[in-house]
Amino acid sequence: MCQAFSGLLDRERGVLWKMGVDSHSELVDEFKLRDNTDRKDGMTFARFEITPVNKDYLYPDKWTFTLDERIKPTWWNEGCEMLCWEAHKEWERELDKVLVRKPMVHPLTGRTPPERITKKHLSILKQWDSVWDSVWASVGNSVWDSVGDSVGDSVWDSVWASVGNSVGNSVWDSVRDSVGASVWDSVWAYTSSFFTLPRSEWKYTGNIECDTDNPFQPCIDLWELGLVPSFDGKTWRLHGGKDARILWEGTV
User: Which of 166, 187, 234, 248 is the most buried if burial means most Cβ atoms within 10 Å?
Assistant: First the structure.
């Protein structure tokens, strides 16, 4: 599987890449290249990847270059790799416009929940209820498809591994006995806060009216206040604290 940053170095056209596309084969099609030889003296372009050693695009350590070819073209030299690194810097600048590198918040262990639930908290929950009920597909599908199209699968998978599989699983394990799968929608919503997309690029959310670019902002606000919302089909609950206790339950 191709990883970000993926690109092609064409002997005549230079480095070719596209934001959100990790696949070399898709890039070959995108730029209408002919991939019809494996002779090193006949190759007109070469595939390459520049990836973080720790595979973590949210918190990368050291980036490393890989020429993703079985053989090296006869024309390949150190200058070629330098061109690839220059393109990588441009890709990073574009990525930084979308990816929000910030500390992760665990709402149950990393935040002290409010001493009491106020009208302010319930107002935010009511907004989340409206959003949650208005997504055409699901919160998870919206976040997955929107972010994947914007930054590519490699970056998205890495952020999900950092947020969803670590903090998300912990929250789910703490809350699942008292509610249902709606908790994962809270995790998806919080994960979306690591990406800055224009309002129009959040898929399946056309029916949602909001004042922010991110339609899932109400859930993000609750999460960062130390509150995890859940819904069992009839009753909404707000959970908080290390034991994920129910701080409030009712209808909105």
Answer: 187
